[in-house]
Amino acid sequence: MAVRIRLTRMGRKKQPFYRIIAANAEAKRDGSFLDILGTYDPMQDPAVVSIDNEKLTDWLSRGAIPTETVSNLIKKHGQAQAETA
Question: Sign of the C-alpha dihedral, residues 51, 31, 33, 63?
Fold first, then answer.
């Protein structure tokens, strides 16, 4: 079973809100998932990303592969943490 770290859409019409999840690669976008790793809110200015780093590193060590969008969010989140520290 291949595991992907990807976004699942929440929120209302024209007001998207996303969860960052670990899911089976064959599952539907808004279908079943294994774990919630964080959230992404693109409607706020600037966009808000919150990720549980412990869960993320755990899933990455198990071989989960992030999508291109999620990997970009992880990079931006990591830079924001470095700037605040």
Answer: negative
pTM to 2 decimal places: 0.83
In the CATH hierarchy, which fold is given to the domain comprising 3-84?
S16 Ribosomal Protein; Chain: A; (3.30.1320)
Q: Are 45 and 68 in contact (CB under 8 A)?
A: no
What are the sequence ranges of the domains in the chain? 3-84
Per-residue pLDDT tens digits of the chain, which is 85 residues long: 799 999 999 999 999 999 999 999 888 878 889 999 999 999 998 899 999 999 999 999 999 999 999 999 999 877 555 444 3
> CA geometry: angle at 64 spanning 45 and 52, to 5°?
40
